[in-house]
Amino acid sequence: MEITGHLQNYEWGKIGKNSLVAQIMCNNTDLKIDDETPYAELWMGIHNNGESLVKDKQQPLSAWLKKNVEPVRLSNTEQLLPFLFKVLSVNKALSIQCHPNKEQALDLFKRMPTIYKDGNHKPEMTIAITEFQVMSGFRPVDEIKTFLKEVPEFEMLLSKDLIDNYLSENKDECMKQILQTWLAKTELDMEPIIKSFLNRLANEDDSAKEKYLFLLIKQLSEWYPNDVGVFMPFFLNYFTLNPGECMFIAAGVPHAYIKGDCVECMSCSDNVVRCGLTPKLKDVNVLLEILDFKSYTVDQLKMVGVPKGSDNVMVFNPPGQEFGLTSVIIQTGETYQSSASKTCSIFIVLSGIGEIGKTKKTLKFGSIFFLLPKETCLIKCTKGGPMVLYFAYGVN
C-alpha cells in the first residue's frame, strides 16, 4: 500500500529545491516547493506529531490500521509500528542533544509533561545518503586532555582546578563538574572566549587550524553566535559518514547532526534533552542525570551492516532494539524479494524506476510503501538503475 510522509519545516533544514526532503515530497504529493522555505525532515509512521497518510485515501495511517487490521493484531499499535522512519536534509547543525532511556523518559514525562511530552525512549540509527557530518559521543580521554591543555581559551571558560582535576583524575564526576560550569555560561560569558579563539587561530597556519577545528568552530559560531555548544567539538567526536555508512546512537550519548542527508530510524518517539547549539531550552540538570560520560572512538560509534545474500543488501539491526534498517540496491532488469517482518514495515525509493508485485504498480524516486506484518513483495528495477531502497521494520 502506498503512503505519503509528513513534512517538518525545521529552520535547520535545507532550503527549497536543495532539500532532498522537498524533492521527495514534490515527487510524491502536490507540494509546490518554496525557494525560501527550509524542508528538514520527512516522517514515515504513526507518531502523533507527524503521521503518514494512505496515499489514495488521504487517510491517517493509524486510522486505516484500526479499520482494516484484525483486532488481535491491534492490541498495541506500537507493536505494529514500533519505529519512526525519517529522511533528513540538514543545512546547519541541529542542537547538541541526547535521549533518555525508557525508565528516564517515562519519569521525565510524568514529572514535566509540558516540556517532555513523550514517554518513550529514542535510540536512533542513521545511514548517510550524502556525506553526512556529525558529532557523537565523548572523544577518547587523551584527545580531550590535549584540547584542555593546548586551547588556552579553556582557562577563560573553566577554573584551573576543574581542568587540573580532569587531567589528573579523569572521572565521570570531573566531567560532570566541567559541564555543569560550562553549560551555565551565558552568551555574554561566551562572546569573548569564542572571539579570542577565532582571532588567535585566524593567524595560524592550515595545520594548526585543522588540528584545533577552526573551520568547524567558526561555522558553528556563525550559525549559533556565542552559544555554549560552539566549543563542544573539542569534547565530542566529529566525523563524516560516507554514503551508505551507518551510526547507532544509544540512550544518553550526546550528539548533533551538522550537515548532509540521511535516512534515520528510531523508536516511535520525539523525546529530546538539549544542551547547546539551540535557542530552545537547555535543561542542564536533566542532561547531567541521563548523560553517558563514556568515551568512544569513531569506529565504536559506527555500525557495520551484515550482507544478506549479496553486498547489494545490507542489514543493520542494532542489538537489543525494536527496529532495524535494510539498504537495497537493485540493478536494472533485476528483482528483489523483500523479507517478512513480525511488525509492519515501510520502504522508500531514493533512485531508479521499477514496479512492485503482481499489480506492477510503478515505483519511482520518492515512492513510499507500507507492508503489513508477514507481508512481502517482489520489486523489479525496470530502468534508471540502480534502484536504491531503504526498508524500516520492527525486529522483536
UniProtKB/TrEMBL annotation:
InterPro entries: Man6P_Isoase-1, Mannose-6-P_Isomerase, Pmannose_isomerase-type1_CS, PMI_typeI_cat, PMI_typeI_hel, RmlC-like_jellyroll, RmlC_Cupin_sf
PROSITE patterns: PMI_I_1
Phosphomannose isomerase type I catalytic domain mapped to chain residues: 3-141
One of the record's GO cellular component terms: cytosol
Keywords: Isomerase, Metal-binding, Zinc
Details of cofactor binding: Binds 1 zinc ion per subunit.
Domain of life: Eukaryota
Catalytic activity annotation: D-mannose 6-phosphate = D-fructose 6-phosphate
Pathway the protein acts in: Nucleotide-sugar biosynthesis; GDP-alpha-D-mannose biosynthesis; alpha-D-mannose 1-phosphate from D-fructose 6-phosphate: step 1/2
Top-level class of the enzyme under EC nomenclature: isomerase
Ligand binding (Zn(2+)): 97, 99, 124, 255
Domain Phosphomannose isomerase type I helical insertion: 186-236
SUPFAM superfamilies, per the entry: RmlC-like cupins
Residue ranges that the Swiss-Prot or TrEMBL entry lists as coiled coil: none
Entry annotation: catalytic residues: 274
Gene3D superfamilies: Jelly Rolls, Phosphomannose Isomerase, domain 2
Keyword presence, Metal-binding: yes
Gene Ontology MF: a single term: zinc ion binding
Cofactor requirement: Zn(2+)
GO BP terms, alphabetized: carbohydrate metabolic process; GDP-mannose biosynthetic process
NCBIfam families: manA
Family under the similarity heading: Belongs to the mannose-6-phosphate isomerase type 1 family.
Name this protein carries in UniProt: mannose-6-phosphate isomerase
